[in-house]
Write a structure and sequence with these properties.
Layout: E1 4-5, E2 7-9, E3 12-14, E4 21-25, E5 32-37, H1 41-60, H2 63-79, H3 81-84, H4 92-100, E6 105-107, H5 114-126, E7 134-136, H6 142-150, E8 156-160, H7 163-175, E9 179-183, E10 188-192, H8 198-210, E11 220-226, H9 230-242, H10 262-277, E12 281-284, E13 288-289, E14 299-300, E15 303-306, H11 313-316, E16 323-329, H12 332-339, E17 348-351, H13 355-362, H14 392-399
Parallel strand pairs: 1-5, 6-7, 8-9, 10-11, 10-17, 11-16, 15-16
Antiparallel strand pairs: 2-3, 4-5, 12-15, 13-14
Length: about 400
Amino acid sequence: MKTLVKNFIGGKWVGAHLGRTFDSRDPATGEVIGRCVDSGPEDIDEAMKAATEAFEGWRRMPAPRRGEILFRVAERLIRDKETLARTVTLPSWKTFPALILGNTVVLKPSPETPVTASLFVQVLEESGVPPGVVNLVLGSSPELGAALVRHPNVALISFTGSTATGDQVAMDAAAGHKRVALEMGGKNAILVMDDADLDLAVDGITWSAFGTTGQRCTACSRLLVHREVKERLTRMLLNRMAKLTVGNGLKPGVEIGPLVNHAQLERVQRYIQAGMQEGARLLTGGKALTDGEYARGHFFAPTLFDQVKPTMRIAQEEIFGPVLGVIEVKDLEEAIAVNNSVQYGLSTALYTRDLNRARHDRQRGPSAFRRDATHRQWPSRSGPGGVGHVQRMESDLRGLQRTSSASAD
């Protein structure tokens, strides 16, 4: 029987008030990797009480002392990164900015990643973060997040998830006059011009679209290609995709892991059907992998569509899977227009050798471009998807501070 994964409240690992549990499963094998406490609003109240009581002591601690503690956390994460990476990405980027500025935190992770969050909080505890400064509440019910958002002692909310849920979070926060930082949907694009280094472009496209099975907020799902190089680039990309290895991410040599759960696999399948029904041409993939070692996991073949139109659902809606659609454009002007025709704004990449043109066109609209040797990244400036990661720490720090002024005559 798996060890029970508990809440962390006030410096102690504790169960949930109602005694319920839920299972966290490995998406590659279906095996239970953790039996977790399933919390309710009463547990949120306890965590908020602990965070409120710890706030003054943590806030008044000299910043260099807070920095020493968090530096030990960072050292531990670096030291144990191979072990910790065997779960999923750690939620440190959400927690660190708040702690740096003297805030206390109640962390409510996704029900898909409770074990990861627990490991992260263990590192904080063992590195000397005082009791009550960081609290962890696990649960599978949407009502748990709502209880946290609406709690009267919460001053700022940082949310990562779907646009629909984020909209509700924003409305609840507004009703309570709370600050809110939302990281919601994205429909990211890579633009490839006729003068681009295509070998470099294929490297970037492959990693961006398929490297994390498309389950990353900045993953590319639209490929906007100049018509002069579209056929050649498509052939090169198909050749690269044919060599990708799908499997359990814990095994050496695997490049594409599973989707997070069965519901997400079904969602991706629905988008495949929608793409074909709307007239896109399926070049490769487009199906779940179910034979042999794939039988118990949620694996999906890396998928490439051609003849995609900007108005199609697969070009407009976030899929969050290993699915890429190729859209032909005649020039950079059209590429920018197509790129900005979606409701989301998060990240974009441009492959071109003409950096003067890239810099010039960056100023013309809410696009974002990238260049490493021939591409560079900037944050997108529009849409509900957020501001991107290049300036995220700076913006997070500003958002997590309260400023005041005083005058004397």
